[in-house]
Amino acid sequence: MNAYDIAVIGTGPAGAMAAYTAAAANKRVLLIEKEQLPRYKTCGGGLVFRGKSRLPFSIEATIEKECREIEVYFEGSKRYFSARREEPIISMVMRDSFDSLLVTKAREKGAELLEQCTLQGLTQEENGVLLQTSMGEIKATYVIAADGALSPTAKLAGWEESRKLIPALEYEVTVNPEDFERLSRTTRFDVDAVPYGYAWCFPKKNHLSLGVCSLKKQKINLKEYYQAYLKKLQINELLSASAHGFQIPIAPRTTGFSKGRVFLAGDAAGFADPLTAEGISNALYSGELAAKALIESGESSVAAGQTYQALLEERLLSELKTSSLMAWIFYAQPSMRNLLIQKYGQRGCELLTDLFMGKKAFPDNLKQRLREKIPLLRFS
Ligand SMILES: Cc1cc2nc3c(=O)[nH]c(=O)nc-3n(C[C@H](O)[C@H](O)[C@H](O)COP(=O)(O)OP(=O)(O)OC[C@H]3O[C@@H](n4cnc5c(N)ncnc54)[C@H](O)[C@@H]3O)c2cc1C
């Protein structure tokens, strides 16, 4: 039976980055992926500068379009805000080629890849984990579960569901050249185009990625809101459209991110941003942190679990907490939000952009600062 230091389940950004980091430190790494690469992944494909700039290699070859301007519209209001930066705020990628490039980089560092191989079971043993896969048994000292929002690995390892999963619908559409020219100049977000959510228009090389998501767990017919969004964008004719729906976990697990020798990263852990549902950059970051924790801690799974928790607490977990509060104000308290927007709308848009750029930290003590500005404010 083949034995590895680390088996990584899933070749999305979390898994590929974990494999890259561990293999670069001379660990024996196996990447297990149930699909054949390159595989389509439902995603708007907007990689914010904060995530892109941390990558240790260039991804230029997979970038469909660089967006240096974002626009934020509010439903029912003629006002909109926009922000520009010299460097690209959002780099647009298609996830099949982007994820494949990350896997190639991990393989160049020595990681092995098993494609079309599904993890079906796992048994934690004293010194490692025995994996049952569609291609037979594999032994590894540690497992990094980077298998996305559904994360079968987390279920197999005994995690109960505690993340908040929200629905999102995405369409890859081609439109006529005039509409494409008009809509591909900026990246556009339309807040409240969906109750408790937003719609987006992301330009790719030759097509648009349009989507709708609700940041609240609710029964909702997203297709209707998508149809309304097409009208809002004044797209009267679609030359082609393919629809893809999936879930995004926008609240981290409440029961920890490691169990014995199994570690969770990316969507499996619930690390997408609660305000924007942007998940690629935190997937990349948490994959890297999980690998670092295992590299630093050697054979001791207890030390590895503690190290991973400490690394996550350095930045990521507190950012998610602040972002969750921002999301609550933004989507669940529209009258308060509208007041804030009237007064600080452009500043808010600049702050969002700086957060995307990684040029500003998430605000500290947000609750307290808001209470000072709005004394009547009550938090749930
Ligand atoms: C509609 C939509 C739009 C989005 N738009 C954006 C966006 O524009 N920007 C952004 O930053 N984020 C966006 N996100 C979120 C982003 O897609 C995720 O947060 C990100 O992909 C998480 O990466 P990951 O590596 O954790 O998991 P994933 O990218 O989901 O990768 C998981 C991998 O695991 C594999 N796998 C699953 N089960 C098994 C198994 N049993 N055995 C082996 N392999 C398995 C899967 O095939 C997959 O390749 C969007 C999400 C949705 C649903």
Q: How would you describe what is shown here?
A:
The chain has helices at residues 13-24, 49-52, 95-108, 152-156, 177-183, 222-232, 280-297, 301-314, 316-332, 334-357, 366-373, and strands at 3-9, 29-32, 46-48, 63-67, 69-74, 80-84, 90-93, 112-114, 119-124, 129-133, 136-145, 165-175, 187-191, 197-203, 208-214, 238-249, 258-259, 262-264. It is α/β, with parallel strands linked by helices. It folds into 2 domains: 3-64 and 90-162 and 254-318, 3-Layer(bba) Sandwich (FAD/NAD(P)-binding domain); 165-249, D-Amino Acid Oxidase, subunit A, domain 2 (D-Amino Acid Oxidase, Chain A, domain 2), CATH 3.30.9. Strands 1, 2, 8, 9, 10, 11, 17 and 18 form an 8-stranded mixed β-sheet that branches. The longest helix has 24 residues, at 334-357. The model has no long low-confidence stretch (mean pLDDT 94). The structure holds flavin-adenine dinucleotide.
Unique bound compounds: flavin-adenine dinucleotide
What would CATH call the homologous superfamily of the largest domain? FAD/NAD(P)-binding domain
Top CATH class of the largest domain:
Alpha Beta
Per CATH, what is the topology of the largest domain?
Answer: FAD/NAD(P)-binding domain
Average of pLDDT: 94
* Shape estimate: globular
Count every beta strand, where a strand is a DSSP E run of 2 or more residues.
18
Reported CATH architecture of the largest domain: 3-Layer(bba) Sandwich
Compute the separation of the termini in Å: 53 Å
Q: Please give the share of residues in helix.
A: 25-40%
User: Which class of secondary structure composition applies to the elements?
Assistant: alpha/beta
Total helix count?
11
